[in-house]
Design brief:
With 353 residues, this protein is an alpha/beta fold. It folds into two domains: 170 residues, Quinone Oxidoreductase, Chain A, domain 1 (Alpha-Beta Complex), CATH 3.90.180; 145 residues, NAD(P)-binding Rossmann-like Domain (Rossmann fold, 3-Layer(aba) Sandwich). The chain contains ten helices and 19 strands. The longest helix has 17 residues. The radius of gyration is 20 Å and the shape is globular. It starts with a strand and ends with a strand. Bound molecules: NADP nicotinamide-adenine-dinucleotide phosphate, beta-D-glucopyranose and zinc ion (ZN). The site of NADP nicotinamide-adenine-dinucleotide phosphate has 26 residues, from helix 1, helix 4 and strand 13. Zinc ion binds next to loops.
């Protein structure tokens, strides 16, 4: 069957032929419908993050999948169910994190991530998965089901950010999303529902399709060329919540300064090594004297996927139409990996219902 993979060091995705998988005990065979592409895929292809399974010279890509159950294989699913798989799998048999249903909290070495690190992904005509790592979604969401995984990332990060503020009466009113990529825009659409005022920072000049999306959902665009993160309180307002989705390492520290007292910043980006100077004393003092919290968050699991299905159901079709700039079949899969200023969210289509 066809699959899309990156050969180690090749720096680009290619179409390869792999055997169709056979479901083992407790595993479901899923016919793949669509698989999304995000910033992590670009980092994996470039060799900056993740890696192929041991003994393999390639990694089948894809961690944002939606598919249709082909063979339920004795699990609680039935053929025809529309499902979304979670990303992490135990590396060598279960460990405590998987056993308690929190693989998203596992440290390095205690997980593989399908399509990212150590285990082939979902960009193939079929994939198998233990039933416990599949979440059923309504058939009406099948076309956009590849957005459940990225939305689940935000569900987890926000749950952790809110938990860090749960020891007092926190009443956030404003949120700033750093980054106008697909994760940033999905997050902004979710925040628009729950905050009085939402902002999204990018480095693009007008006209730009992401700025149009930000404004169409009621957000305010902040141009980082005019307003660096630390100047957001002066030019706009000090936000109660900052959600960093740029992967630009300085933003983690600038966010501490920009937050309102008692605020929280959730850091999502995965930057490479970068040494730069910061005023550690000032940042340390700022966190302490203004009760600020900085929360890192990676991956997500079943409860976050379930919450994501609800959030996706509530999103306006016009927003989703603007966000998804292209869905490409296998003949033109390379276009799904183009990363330019007109591309926001793409997916590869393997099949339809
Ligand atoms: P993406 O499409 O590459 O988006 C990143 C966005 O940030 C782009 O729009 C980029 O702008 C903008 N940006 C980068 N540096 C900037 C700067 N200095 N100032 C202003 N804007 C800047 O990636 P994504 O898929 O949305 O993901 C965002 C980040 O989250 C990535 O680092 C990714 O690795 C990470 N991520 C983490 C998790 C997790 O579990 N923690 C999950 C998914 C993604 P331009 O387009 O104009 O360059
Ligand atoms: C994926 C997560 C994964 C993270 C780090 C993200 O793009 O959506 O599931 O944990 O990358 O590899
Ligand atoms: Zn991702």
């Amino acid at each position: 069957m066809d699959a899309i993979a990156v050969r180690t060091g090749a720096g680009k995705a290619e179409l390869i032929d792999v055997p169709k998988p056979e479901p083992g005990p407790g595993e479901v065979l899923v016919r793949t419908l669509r698989v999304g592409v995000d910033g992590t895929d670009h980092e994996v292809i470039a060799g900056g993050h993740g890696g192929a399974p041991d003994g393999s010279d390639h990694l089948v890509l894809g961690h944002e999948a939606v598919g249709i159950v082909e063979d339920a294989n004795g699990t609680s699913f039935i053929a025809g169910d529309i499902v979304v798989p979670t990303v992490r799998r135990p590396p060598n048999g279960p460990n405590e994190y998987f056993e308690r249903g929190e693989p998203d909290m596992a440290p390095d070495g205690q997980y593989h991530e399908r399509g990212i690190v150590g285990k082939h992904g979902f960009m193939a005509e079929y994939f198998t998965s233990p039933g416990e790592y599949l979440v059923e979604i309504p058939e009406s969401l099948a076309d956009v089901g590849f957005l459940v995984e990225p939305i689940s990332i935000t569900e987890k990060a926000v749950a952790h950010a809110r938990a860090s503020r749960s020891a007092f009466e926190w009443q956030p009113e404003s949120a700033v999303v750093l980054g106008n990529g697909s994760l940033g825009l999905l997050t902004l659409a979710m925040f628009e529902e729950s905050f009085d005022r939402v902002y999204c920072l990018g480095r693009r000049e007008r006209p730009d399709p992401t700025i149009d999306i930000i404004e169409s959902i009621g957000g305010t665009y902040i141009n980082s060329n005019e307003t660096p993160v630390a100047a957001i309180p002066d030019d706009y307002e000090a936000p109660d919540l900052i959600f960093e989705a740029t992967g630009y390492a300085k933003h983690a520290f600038e966010a501490i300064e920009a937050l309102a007292p008692n605020g929280v910043a959730a850091l999502l980006g995965v930057p490479g090594d970068w040494a730069f100077e910061i005023d550690g004393g000032s940042l340390h003092r700022e966190i302490v004297l203004h009760n600020k919290a900085i929360v890192g968050s990676v991956n997500s699991h079943i409860p976050h996927f379930e919450a994501a299905v609800e959030s996706l159901s509530a999103m306006d079709q016009s927003f989703l139409d603007a966000l998804i700039t292209g869905v490409y079949d296998l003949k033109e899969f390379e276009t799904a990996f183009v990363d330019d200023d007109t591309t926001i969210k793409t997916a590869v289509q393997f099949d339809s219902i």
